[in-house]
Every structure is written in structure tokens, then in C-alpha cells.
Amino acid sequence: xxxxxxxxxxxxxxxxxxxxxxxxxxxxxxxxxxxxxxxxxxxxxxxxxxxxxxxxxxxxxxxxxxxxxxxxxxxxxxxxxxxxxxxxxxxxxxxxxxxxxxxxxxxxxxxxxxxxxxxxxxxxxxxxxxxxxxxxxxxxxxxxxxxxxxxxxxxxxxxxxxxxxxxxxxxxxxxxxxxxxxxxxxxxxxxxxxxxxxxxxxxxxxxxxxxxxxxxxxxxxxxxxxxxxxxxxxxxxxxxxxxxxxxxxxxxxxxxxxxxxxxxxxxxxxxxxxxxxxxxxxxxxxxxxxxxxxxxxxxxxxxxxxxxxxxxxxxxxxxxxxxxxxxxxxxxxxxxxxxxxxxxxxxxxxxxxxxxxxxxxxxxxxxxxxxxxxxxxxxxxxxxxxxxxxxxxxxxxxxxxxxxxxxxxxxxxxxxxxxxxxxxxxxxxxxxxxxxxxxxxxxxxxxxxxxxxxxxxxxxxxxxxxxxxxxxxxxxxxxxxxxxxxxxxxxxxxxxxxxxxxxxxxxxxxxxxxxxxxxxxxxxxxxxxxxxxxxxxxxxxxxxxxxxxxxxxxxxxxxxxxxxxxxxxxxxxxxxxxxxxxxxxxxxxxxxxxxxxxxxxxxxxxxxxxxxxxxxxxxxxxxxxxxxxxxxxxxxxxxxxxxxxxxxxxxxxxxxxxxxxxxxxxxxxxxxxxxxxxxxxxxxxxxxxxxx
Length: 692
What we know:
The structure is a single chain. The chain is α+β, with helices and mostly antiparallel strands. It has a 5-stranded antiparallel beta sheet with strand order 2-3-1-7-8, covered by helices on one side. Strands 13-15-16-14 form a 4-stranded antiparallel beta sheet, sandwiched between helices. Strands 4-6-5 form a 3-stranded antiparallel beta sheet. Strand 15 and strand 16 form a beta hairpin. The two termini are about 45 Å apart.
């Protein structure tokens, strides 16, 4: 590598959106890194830094200039570059002109495919400092900012006003003008602890200087870890454990530059409220961390993370305790108000909430889901009446005061209110379980009633949206159909529910009546499920060709699909696998070309001539009897193991028998043998899809 220097880029702003800070920092890092790659500049490491008031990068050992390189452009072939008299053609002259040279300056390049005229030019590498303004500007342009704004009379648009810019390459400031500010070496410390400008010595002293002189911890990950540690240690001193919501931890990290965790208290009477309501109020409104006792009960404490090391922390705590009181009082008011009316009495209000214009109201959806949930419960050994009751109550908490204020409590509050109303415990649990899994890797519903309602809810949404021609697109999925489909698959597969998805989608479509306008709704929805199942299977470690082998026979029971997939994965480890896969490919090709003759044919023993075809026919007859009990109990691994034992017989058939015999009857009989052979394998999967 050529000479190198360390580079510091720091963009100082008003407070950036805390929830987006980590994303902005990562995108800035990637944008600059991409700019270096495009400019063919190498470096050792790019380290991102981010605080509420800055995005920064420290790049170590960055080339000080590009490498010199040879530019080569290929022109016309020699055979077409000159006319019969040896004069350059218009094509050649045009090429030379585009290169800015005479024809005589071009070189000839000979290859195996002929000779061409080429233009070669040595291009000196540019100084890195001259490339940095464009690289930085492009990286900022590509930041994921939904809405850029112009601030006052400042030029350019950004998510927040920009106040300073530092671009240090080695010991020198790089002259860069961006978003109305010119680069220098003056950064700024903490807004309160040290608001004075700080002169940065070099990229390597940047983070230590801001910490020691400016009271700013610029390392986002280190700051997050410090917050996590402080909060946990403080909770332990309070005799409990901190409730660390990862999203809240990220947000708080994006709010402070000098974190100081402080503990406060609230009135014990609020502990009569559901813990989730208190936590939601503390996290959502105040960005506080709740504290639980070792047994899981909530304690009357909270932990706040201040952005200042106060000389009188008691005053800071007292201020936070004053602020939390009305918030918790509001939650208590909502709780008391909601309990004045039973959950079931709220069903009528659902008639005024539109689920989707063509699919009706939330009440209409509840009616459909209730029918489907009862149907599912019947198949999985659940209680149909409980599933139907739970589905009718499932969305009633949406119109409660508590969920109106804290939407993330939907389902959770339904469970509490249903218990207070004396509903069956399974019904109450199902009101919460209907939303599971809420995200990738989340827990699944465990009660049969909860599983029935959760599956019915998701299947109704999927079927309805596909049925009116509004499936998700590459960028738009407003009803979270991808998450719903994967949730359905996980619930069925991981809870080992023997459910036929195609039948359930048919049932769901029937409950929609004449609402649906699309034809072949079931096939569309099933294809969507197969697409999601492919990703799920690959994540489980299965190979793409194994999945395709099972998909070829289109099993509509997800649990059954996975059993076949496991059998295929085990089968391919057998020594017979490659030979049988190749044989099945050959059989498939022959049958496709002679589909009309092979269809519906049975094996006629009187037409068997060669010993190899007699042996295979005998094996097929025996296999039909031997495999019946294995297939009946879905022992697909056993079926494939059995079929693996037929390899030599199948190989011998292909080696010794001419399938396409001149005699039509013999030919058709041999096609029937192949058809039956392939059918045995297709009872599990199409192993011809397996790649060597």
C-alpha cells in the first residue's frame, strides 16, 4: 500500500432522532466505505461513532492517494478498421476521436479470437483529500432519512440543522463545505458540561479528547454497555432486577452523551395495576427502566438515565418522581374506567372500526375468525366453543381506554379484563396468545384455544387480502402478511399440529362469502406459504434442492412437509442416493416425452421379456405391500431407505432393457414399470431434484 494517514470525519448537529441514531451511524459508515471502494482507496478499519449531536467516523491507515492505473479501451477489430486501400474506416476514426488521439496513437491487441485496435492511457491516481468531499457528500445523500428539511437560510437539506464539521486527514484539515458549514478541527463537547469548542489533535485522539475534555462518550456501543451496566447495578442495589427492553436501551443510548443512571420511587398503590401497563407507561412516556423483584413482581422503583452528572442528583430524582406521578395516575384512571364495562359488551363498538374497506369491520372479521378458530380447534383436540368465544372477544380490548393510550398492550389487557369478567382461563390466555409470535424468534401460543385463534386470525387476514387482490409487494406489506404467514408455519410445525393448510385456506375463503374477487385464492395463498416455508427450511439448515424435491409433490400439511424434508436430507447421505436421483431424472425425462402412452397403464406380466424388467416388476409388486404400513404412519425415512435397496434392480433395468421397444405393447408395459417406480418415490418427494 502507498503512504497512509488516519482520517476523522465528524458531522455536528442538533439532537438527532434517538431511535434512528444507530441506523444513521451504520448507513454513514457503509456509505463512506462504499465511496472508498468505488475510488479504489484502501484502509485498515472504519470505526463509527455516534451521539445525539454527532455522526463520526475514524478511518485508520487510509491511502493518501490512488494508485496509478492504466485505462484500456477496445476499439474496432483490425479486419473492419481499414478499407481495401488500407485507409482507416469511419468507425476507427470515430473511435480515435472519442479517445482524443490520432489513429497512429492506437495500439493493436491480439487475442485468440482476433486482433483489435485499443487505446491505452496511464492515469495518475488522485490525492485522497481531493476525493473526500464527494465521498462524504454522497454518503450523506444516501442516509435513510424519510424526510429531509431545510433549516432557516442554510443551504442543503438534512434531518437536523448542522453546526460544525471536522475533517482531519493526518495533521491537516481537508477543505470541505457541506450543508452550510466548512470543515475545521474544532469539535464540541457536552451541551452543559463543556459547551466550549474542542480542538481535535488527530483522528486517534478524537474519542479520548471528547471523553476527557468534553464529557462525551462518542462510542455508541460502549455507551450502550455503560448504560446497561449502570441500570443493572442500580436495580441490584434496589433489591431487584432491571427490565431491559432492547428497544428502550437503544433509544436511551441515542438520547444521552454522558449517561448517569439514577433511581426513583413511585407510590406502591400503583402496583395494583397490571405490571405491563406500568412498564409501558414508564418506558413509553418517560424512557424509564422498570425494576422487578427476584420473584418477578414489579417493585415501586424506576431507573432513569440522565444526560448530566448533577451536583445535586436528589433534585433530578425528585423532578422525575413528580413527572411520573400523573402518568401512572392516568394509567390507573384507564384501568378503573375500563373495568366498569365487561369485555363482551364492547363487541358492538367493533362494528364502527373498519378492518379493510372490502373486507368489512373488525366485528365482521371477528365473526369470520370465530368460525375458523372453531374449525381448527376441532382438528387439534381443542374446545370449539372456547375457541369461538375467544375469537369473538379477541379484538374487544382495542376499544378500551388503556389500549387506546398504550397500543402495545393489545391482547395483554384483553387477558386481564377477561379474567376479571370471569371468562374461562383458556379464553383469557387466547386473547394475548392470538398475537404470538409477534416477531422473529418470539414465543408461540401454547394453549389449544390460543393456537386456534392465532392461526385463524392470521389465515383470515392472508386469505382476505389475497382474495381481494391486495397481496404484499416488494416494499409494501401494511398488514404484515409475511410475519403472519411465517407465524402460521411456526405454530403448526413447532407445536406439531397435523393441519392441512390448503383445507383451512379453503374454509377461510368460504367464510368471506362473495367478498373475494380473485380466482384460485387457495393456490395463491399456498404459494405464498411455500415461499415463506422455503426461507424457514433453509434457516433450519436444509439445502435448497432438498426443499425443491419435497415442494415438487406439494404437501399441504406443513408438519408433513418438514417430515418429508428430514427424510430427503437423510436419504441423500446414503451411497445409493446419487444413482437413484440420476435414475429418477432419467425416468422423469422418458415419461414426460411419452406422457400419453404411460398414463393409466398397468404392468402386464405376460409382456415381461427381459429378466431385469421381470425383477423390477416383482420388486414393485412387493414394494407396494411393504411400503403401505410405512406410508400410513408417515415414516418417510423408512420409505426412502426401503427404496434405496432397489438401486441395483433399477440400475440393471436401465442397463439391460430397451424401454422404447418397437413393439407398442411391450413399450407401453415398460413405461408402466417406470411410471410405477417413479410413483413410489413421489410418495415422499421428487428426488430427481437433488443435485450431486
